[in-house]
Amino acid sequence: MARRSKVGGGGKESEADLTPLIDVCFQLITFFVMLMTLAKDEAAQKIKLPVAASAQVLTDDQIPDSINVNVDSRGHLLGWGLDLDLSKSDAKGWTEFGKLIRKEGLLQKESQKARGVDWKKEGLSTTVIVRVDREVEYEIFRRVMDMCRAAGFSKFQLKAAEEEEA
Amino acid sequence: MGRRSTRETPEEAESKLTSMLDLIFNILAYFVVTFNPPKPEKNFDIALPPPQIEKQEQQTKSEKEVSLPDEEEEILEDVTIALGAGPNGSLASVRLEGRQIQASQLSSQLQLTAGAIGGATGDRLEAATIVASPKLKYRYLIEVIDSCYKAGIKKIFFAEAPSALSGGAGGGADAPPP
User: Fold this and answer.
1) What is the DSSP code string of A63-128?
2) Which of residues 124-163 of B touch A (CB under 8 A)?
3) How far is CA B127 from CA A55, B20, B116, in A?
């Protein structure tokens, strides 16, 4: 990769070979740009998680087959490229969410059936990762959980933060 | 970004490289300064049976209770934790099996209850059912789940609040569930 720039024909090298330095700099920039893109995706959801001391931190190999359910502080469900309003008990968003989660449940049941696993006995192996903002009301959370259960999901992970976010 | 094929003096080439290097360092400095690594998240694992399986389990359990009343077997005991919400969704009251307690004492009270159940019947206290006022904020619910985890209870059910409480959508304080 690195090229040597020689000045003149007498074998006298230039003062400093900057090419490897530039290579490293570009790699660092790529690293930061990629990390920023990921962080932006999380921040876009604007979900401030509640703090919990006894919750566990998962290592990479423990992260299971999962689907995400995110509810922000306004009571809006974010995910599947949608923004559904769940803040009112009769909101249209609930109907949409019901349809979506049932569809997702059916897909998971079919996939489990294809693998020869009886979901009726063992439940669905997919975990629902629930990220709910700390300001969301209990009623919204409970209905989300009930709808997921009605769709056949039985494994849940409730996300919490390690320390209070600003 | 194409490079000139014409011959350049070493000074010209060096000056072009210097400006590019300046730019790269500026970009790098920007990213280093604005870099905010994502914080690790924690989680509570909760396994709940789907409604149809839960119904079957309840049927089987009641059938067993009818047919084998004296059989000694380890039955999963559970407790009910009722949470009342204050005017702004804060945690106003905690009732453990109908008994009013302080929120900070929940974990120790759960451990005491587990000990009492274990000592009396040999059963394990492994499940809790949380009944909360609809307006209660999620952060307080997580605090209660946290207390349950500390007491070794990892099977947690979320029940619907009594209808009298569910109707109170006026934003006022909810009375604690009975």
Assistant:
1) --SEEEEEE-TTSEEEETTEEEE-SSTT-HHHHHHHHHHHHHHHHHHHHHHHTT--HHHH----EE
2) 132-139, 141-143, 145-146, 149-150, 158-161
3) 17, 63, 15
All structural domains of chain B with their residue ranges: 51-64+75-166
Using one digit for the tens of pLDDT, what is the confidence trace for B22-66? 888 888 888 888 877 767 778 888 887 766 655 555 555 555 444
Domain B51-64+75-166 fold is: Nucleotidyltransferase; domain 5 (3.30.420)
* B70 shares contact with chain A (CB less than 8 Å): no
Quick check: ipTM above 0.85?
Answer: no
The single-letter code of the amino acid at B103 is A
Span B73-103, pLDDT tens digits: 444 578 889 999 888 888 888 998 888 888 8
Q: CB–CB of B132 and A155 under 8 A?
A: no
Q: Tell me if B61 sits within 8 A of A162, measured CB to CB.
A: no
For B50, the closest of A38, A89, A152 (CB atoms) is A152
**Which residues on A lie below 8 Å from B85 (Cβ)?**
138
| Alpha carbons A50 and A30: distance in angstroms, whole number | 32
Q: How far is Cα A8 from Cα A86, in angstroms, rounded to an integer?
A: 73
- Tally of CB atoms within 10 A around B154: 15
